[in-house]
Every structure is written in structure tokens, then in C-alpha cells.
Amino acid sequence: MRRAAWVVVAAALVGGCAWFDDGPPTRACRTTRDCFAAQGEVCDPVTATCVPGPDAATAAAAEAAP
Amino acid sequence: MRRAAALGLAVVAALAGAAGAQPSAEFRKEFEAGTDAYRLGDYVEARAHLERAAALAPTLPGPLRFLAAVDAAEQQWRACVEHARAAIVANPASTEIAATRKLHDDCRGALGWPMFTGDYGDGGALAVTANVAGAALTVGGLRAGAAPLPPRPTPLGPIEVVATRAGWKPARVTVTVIPGVVTDAVLTLEEEPAGLDVVDAGPAIPAEGWLRLHAPPGAVVTVDGQAVTVDERGRYPLAPGSHQVEVTAPGARPVRRTVRIDRGQERQVTVALEAEGAFARRRRLAHVALGAAAGLGAAGVATGWLALRAADQARGWAAVERARPTTVPLADSAAIAPLHTRADIDAAGHRARTLGLVSGVAYLTAGAALATGVYLLVRNPDHPGRATVVPVMGDGWGLGVAGVLP
């Protein structure tokens, strides 16, 4: 009985934390500071999401080069 | 002073009402003389004039109301109550009805009778007193407890009140409940003379009560550990109070119930015996369901914790990547803080959402299993699901539903 009570308490704690948790990050942004600018991302003001910048593909290729 | 002002207004209203009803000149003369004498404090003369006015126009409330006021001034509280009631009955929609009701209530209060603080609604209230405390009361054919009965809302109209008590002759009275005030039923029981035949003693409450037990055939019944036998009507006569009733049968689980027996009342109890095998099966199923609930709950906790951890990790990585300087080559900054691409972070987020979903499903299933287990554990086949509609008298009248869930 005591074990069951502990399970209920733990379930309530974890469930409560999950309920109020912010969740994983999204690509939503307002400025480029909200994006991974060092990786070449910029904030698209039309869709308010982080998108690869014009030179991101080049930068990624350069990073991947041996 | 306030009463004088109210009564002054009452004179105007009563005269106006009397004018509308075309009372005779003689009535008006007597009524005015009565109210004048009342204001001057000559209550004897006021009473004489007002009684003549009331006799000339018995349906007008004005003289009755002033007679009640004269009664109050002379501290004749019972007469005051009767005159105020007569005035209310004469015209319940009178413009002076509030003052008349207040006068009625003041006179009742002076008699020491309990006041009614509830809401009358469209009805009235009834209070019952008897010279024998604890006498059993029946109001309108329904049992209503013991005397004295404090005021309770009651529908308008005549209603019979009966008081009974062992050793006393039953007393009955019919009163008419009127709107907006408490109607008092006062009962006087006469002591039963010694030596009278008990057959004539009326519906006095017997010293014992009865238990009518509906049990499967062949069941053995004991009350308080003693074997009992039924009377000619198939009931177990028992002394008033609580009793432990046990019903047993071969191959069945014994059922124990605490039954309260009241004097003169029959209590019906239905007992359904459950076979030992069925009981064991039900208990086993309950334990399986509770075990499943515990397991699913633990799974929900574990996956929920993993989901929280994955989401936290994704948020941490994203914060690092947002703060990563653009002026330093990635290779240099990655040596300090490991690089996580958008794909890495999206994958962690996806994992967090999936685990969260699994956790939610586990929680829901655990809840359902827990409810099933508890139901199987506490379900008592001895209490069949049955509801009974019964009349009730409490602060109001109505119907109640009594019963238990299966």
C-alpha cells in the first residue's frame, strides 16, 4: 500500500512537471538573435521562423570539408 | 413611535380600502372611533369600537389589525396572534400586510415561540408544540419527528397534525397554514388512565422494532451472535439500537451488517451472498488490475522523466547555439562547446514529444486499471444497485432518492 502511494506521488510530480514544462525548442523567432546565427541561420520575418541563410550551405560545406 | 407611525399609515390605507369596498357609514364611524381611542391609549373603548366595526364588515382586515394592536398593547399575545392571522386571511394582498406580519411575529416572539428565519416562498410555515416532549408527530400523514417541531416551510391550506406517545391518548388538530407567517399547532395529550384496555391505546409506539431480512434460502442468520427466529409476519423482532447481523451459508462468504432498529419501525435489509470461489476470483482480478496500474504508472513516470530530460537537453543545446559567437570560427568555438546542429536539436525534441505521448498513454491506462481494481476490490454484491423514491420532510417537502450504487 505504501509502495502504491509512492508511485502515485511520483506520478503526480512527474505528470505535473510535464504539464507545466515548456517543451522542446522550436524554430520560432523574432530576430536573427533567436536563431543559430553562428551556423548561418537567419530569421525569416515573413514566416517568423529560423531558416538557413544565403551562405549557410557554403559554410556547412566548408565545415564538412576535410 | 415607529409603531404609531405605521399604524397611522394603516389607518389611511384601511380607510382607503374601506372606501373602495363601500363600507357603511356606521362602520366608518366605529372604525375611526376605535383607531382614535387606540391612539389616545384608551384600549377598552378602542376594543369596543373595533369589535363593532369588525362585526359590521367581517371581511375587512383593518379592524382586525387594530384589534391585534390593542391586544399587543394589553399584552394579550395569543389574542394578538389570532387577530393578526384573521387580518392576514381577510386580505393577504393588503398594502399593510408587512406591518401585520411583523405584529404577528412580535406577538409570537413575546409568547416565547420559536421564530422562522428561512424563506417562506409562496407558502407559510408550521410549528408544532405539545405538552408532552418527545411525542411522535405526524404532519399531513407523514412522520415528522418528535415534538416540539421548530417552524418549517409548509404549503398553504389545512393540514392535520397528530401527536402520539405511549401512555398518552393521541391528540390531533387541523390547522390552516396561511402565507408569510408561522402557523402554530398546539397539541395537548391526555394521560391514559391506568387500567384501560391497551387495544384502545391508539397507535402508541411499541417498545421494539423489526428487521425483515431478504436472504437466499438456506442462509443462517444470527443477530449479535445469537440465533434468532422470525415472528408470524416473517420479521425478526429486535430491541431498538444497533445490531450486528451475520448471514452465513455453506460455500458462501459470510456477510456482516450493522443494522439500526428504531422503535415501532420495520427495517428491510437485502443480503446477497457471494460464493467463496467468485469472491477469490474477484479479489485476484482486482490485484491484477492494481498491479497493472502500478506498472503502467511506473512506466508513465519513467517515460515522463525521460521526456522532460530530452526536452531539457534540446533547450540547453539550442541556448548554446543561439549564444555561439558569429565572429569566431565554428571549429574554434566547437572546441569549447560541442556543436549541435538544428537537426540534432529537432531529433531531441522529437524524442521528447514521443516519450511524452507514451507517458500520457501510460498514465491514462494506469488510471483506468486503478479504477477497475478499486471497483473490483470494494464492490459489494451484498448491496444491489437500487434506488428508492421516498417522501421527505426536512426544511422543505419533497421527494428523495435513497439507494446505493452496485
Provide the fold topology.
The complex is a heterodimer of chains A (66) and B (406).
Chain A: H1 2-20, E1 41-44, E2 49-52, H2 56-64
Antiparallel strand pairs in A: 1-2
Chain B: H1 2-20, H2 25-39, H3 43-56, H4 61-73, H5 77-90, H6 97-110, E1 124-130, E2 136-139, E3 142-146, E4 149-154, E5 157-165, E6 168-177, E7 182-187, E8 209-214, E9 220-223, E10 226-227, E11 236-238, E12 241-248, E13 255-261, E14 266-270, H7 276-323, H8 330-336, H9 342-378, E15 386-393, E16 397-404
Helix pairs in contact in B: 1-2, 2-3, 2-4, 3-4, 4-5, 4-6, 5-6, 7-9
Contiguous helical run count of chain A: 2
- What is the mean pLDDT of chain B? 84
Order of helices and strands of chain B: HHHHHHEEEEEEEEEEEEEEHHHEE
Largest sheet of chain B: 4 strands, antiparallel
**How much beta of chain B, percentage-wise?**
15-25%
Sheet having the most strands of chain A? 2 strands, antiparallel
Radius of gyration of chain B: 39 Å
Runs of chain A in which pLDDT lies below 50 for 5 or more consecutive residues are 61-66
Shape of chain B: flat
Shape of chain A: rod-shaped
How do the strands of the widest beta sheet of chain B line up side by side?
3-2-5-6
Most extensive chain contact?
A-B, 28 and 37 residues
* End-to-end separation of chain B: 65 Å
